[in-house]
Structure formats: structure tokens, C-alpha cells
Amino acid sequence: MHSWAQRALSWASGLFGDAQEAPASGRVSTLPPRVATLLTETLLSEVLCHGGAPAPGRPAADVAKGAAPSNVFGTPVSETAADDERGAVAVASGLTAAGVRATAFVSMEGAASARSHLVNAARRRLPLLVHADAAAEHAGYHAVADTGVALAMARDPQHAVDLCLLGRRLAEDALLPVVVAWDGADDDAAVALPDHKLIAAYVGAPDDQVDSPVAAQTRVFDGSRRRLPRWFDPDRPVAQGAGMAGATQDAALAGKSAFFDAHAAAALATAAAALKQHIGRDVGPLFDHKLDGSRHVLVGQGAIVALAAEAADTLRDAGQAVGVLGITWLRPLAGEALAQALAGATAVTVLERGAAPVGAEGALWRECASALRGRDVKLLSARYGLGGQLPAVAELERVFANMAGAATAALYLG
After folding, report:
1. Which of 59, 142, 229, 256 places its Cα 20 to 30 Å from the Cα of 214?
2. pLDDT higher than 70, residue 207
3. Comparison of pLDDT for 220 and 265, the residue scoring more
4. Are the CB atoms for 391 and 384 separated by under 8 Å?
5. Residues in a beta bridge with 329
6. How do residues 289-325 score in pLDDT, each as one tens digit?
């Protein structure tokens, strides 16, 4: 079986002529979003991990046998197949601990099943990147929100490619696992893939020596460190702390939160600003669309945000004061910025994908309610995708109409 890496670069070869060269940054190409993500990861990673069945986005075209492709840093890219998706996250975590730039491709349900591995990776400060397919529903996405990982969902195919770069940079700057999800269709789309220079300048090689960005890392690494620390190195065995339990472990985890995790939001802001300088696109924690003067706002995450923006454009043209707020990064959540963005709204409807929990509001609704506590705004909810499909734009226009009229607290679309 030929590796994903070989297949991904062969796919690009049919489009651009050379399987070892990515198209130039900013050059628009037509690719399925998951293939574009896979190709981007092939160019910057060392090992691609999956479990069980082939991951979404695996190119179907066969390729000729040949040597393993190399990433932009000249390192051969290999594929590792675990027994299941939980195993794929475990394998990627182990490789990351050894200083190998590894990426896991799983379903969102698979990522949720690997919750214990993600918790362990966060506690061990492993800069792991996991790509998750969240097309079924968002329950698995929210299930990993409190594992200690940074968590993002792309709103469109280009955004998914951009989050490959940002997620990798954030993971390695802040030394924490990052999960990036995509819940849209895998139809061909126009995307601008990164070139070698962009990846080398923005992401860098795994063995680069970098300055520790925060004081806690400086204390651990004595100033500078390998971009991907070798926490586990058979050539240089060393004990990393003693076994802990009870009050001792509680104190250690509290210290990790205070000295490492507290800097995650600042690390994300810095990494997002640096990427915007390269590509000219905003990849920050929130995406606002026509919020100026908006009285009624839809809040969502993932592919629904682009559809909601279309609905808002139509109603804006008709003179209605409506807008859209997309939440790209659920962790770290920019709660204060979210509240400020919705300061002028009188009614907000939170769009949630999947069935409602028993006797409770949805997870995204609860996040928004916490951020808006004490604000004079009516917070409603609308559920979609129970059958797997995204709603039509016309249905989202009716959600806006509900806020202007009856203001039914909970709607179901589709």
C-alpha cells in the first residue's frame, strides 16, 4: 500500500507537474478540502498517523511505486497505521514526545475516544497536531474541549488549510496539543496552498533552536530549546519528575495551568498575527461578518458560518441590521472579545450541530451564555444537521426572522 504522503504529492503532481513541489503560496488551486489539508501536512510533517479505515481526504488515484517523498526540510515523510483512531492519537503522541513532527488524522468521534491520550499529551506539554473530521456532529468536538488542548474549527476550505499552519505554529510555540476540525463537504474547492518558503519561514524545521517564548519555558530549557523538544530521547535518558498523586499532583497541575496554559491565548494571538502578515488572511479566534450596527446576530462554528454570512448579506441588502459571528478557536476561547463583538445585539441565536442534550442547553450556547453573563441580550438556539446535512441559506434567513418576531427559544432546521 502506498503511503498517504506519496499519494498526496502524486495528486499535486497531476496538477502542478512535480510531486516534490507545492504550488506557490497564493496560487489558487482546485482540490477537495481534506486532500488540501493532507497535502499541506505532507509538506511540513515527518509522520502521518491514522487508524483503521483510510482517513477522509485520502486521494483515490493510484501512484507509481517510488521512494518516500520528502517534506520541505528534506526529511522523508512516512505513514503509520494504528489499529484504530484512538491508537493513531497514541502513536502520534509517542512520536511527538521523541521530537518527531507527527500528525494524526481521525474522525471527531475518534478524537473523543482518545480523550485520555489528549489529556496525557496536554500534561506532558506535547506539541501534537490532530486533524479531525467533524462532519457528523459536534458532540465529539465539545467532548475534548476540556482535555487541555487548543481547539479550532475551520469555516471554509481555505481556512482549513490556513489552520494547518497556525495550529502547528501554536502547538510548537506554546507546547500544547492542538485539534483542528473541519465539518464541511469534501467537494472540490479553490484553495491557495502554502509554498516551501512560507512553511520554512513561518513554521520552521523541527530541529531548529528557538528562544523560549515565556518565562516558564526558559526555566525548563535554560533559555533556548529545540523547536520540538525531545522529552523522550533514548540516547540521552533522563528522569522528568517523580510520580505524583493526591495533593502533590493537584499542585503540579495547578502550576501547569498558571505558568504554561495561561499564555496560550497570547501565543495564539502572536501566531495568528504573524501568519496574517504572510498570507493576508485573518485566522484569529473570532470571525465577524457585518456586525457593525447589527441588532440580530447568528453565532456558529464551522461551515455553517459561511452559509450564515450569505443569509446576512441578503438581509443586509434589504435594510435589516443583521450580522454573523464565527467562533474559530473554542480553546482558548476569546470570551471578552466575544462579548464585545455582541455588545450592540438585542438578540443572538447560537447555531448548534447535532441533537440537543437531555434537559440542558447545547455546549456552544453555554459557552456564549457564560461570556455574555450580565449583558442585556436575548440568547436563543437553533439546531441543524440532525440528518447530517447543512441547512439552506433560506432557513438561516428564517432564523434571523425569528429573532425579529416571535423569538422562539429553540428552533430545529432541516
Report:
1. 142
2. yes
3. 265
4. yes
5. 152
6. 999 999 999 999 999 999 999 999 999 999 999 999 9
Burial class (CB in 10 A: 0-12, 13-18, 19+), 119: middle
* Phi, psi for residue 288 in degrees, rounded to 5: -110, 140
Beta carbons within 10 angstroms of residue 91's beta carbon:
21
pLDDT tens digits, one per residue of 380-411: 999 998 877 899 999 999 999 999 987 788 88
Tell me which residue of 275, 297, 310 sits closest to 341, measured CA to CA: 297
- What does each C-alpha distance from 292 to 241, 307, 312, 328, 340 come to in angstroms? 52, 19, 12, 19, 12
pLDDT at 97 over 60: yes
Contact present, 290 and 316 (Cβ < 8 Å)? yes
Q: Which three three-digit cell numbers place residue 167?
A: 495550529
The model's pTM is 0.89
Three cell numbers written together for 35: 486532500
d(CA 74, CA 307): 40
Q: Write the single-letter amino acid at 66.
A: G
Is the CB of residue 391 less than 8 Å from the CB of residue 303?
Answer: no
C-alpha cell at 238: 533522563
**Left, alpha or beta for 175 (phi > 0: left; psi -120 to 50: alpha)?**
left
Residues 6 or more apart whose Cβ sits within 8 Å of residue 6: 63, 66, 68, 69
SS3 97: helix
Going from the C-alpha of 317 to that of each of 26, 310, 314, 364, 391, the distances in angstroms are 31, 11, 5, 29, 21
Give the tens place of pLDDT for each residue, 136-156. 789 999 999 999 999 999 998
Quick check: 154 and 163 in contact, CB under 8 A? yes
Distance CA 303, CA 280 (A): 21
Q: What does each C-alpha distance from 329 to 92, 227, 334, 344 come to in angstroms?
A: 22, 23, 8, 22
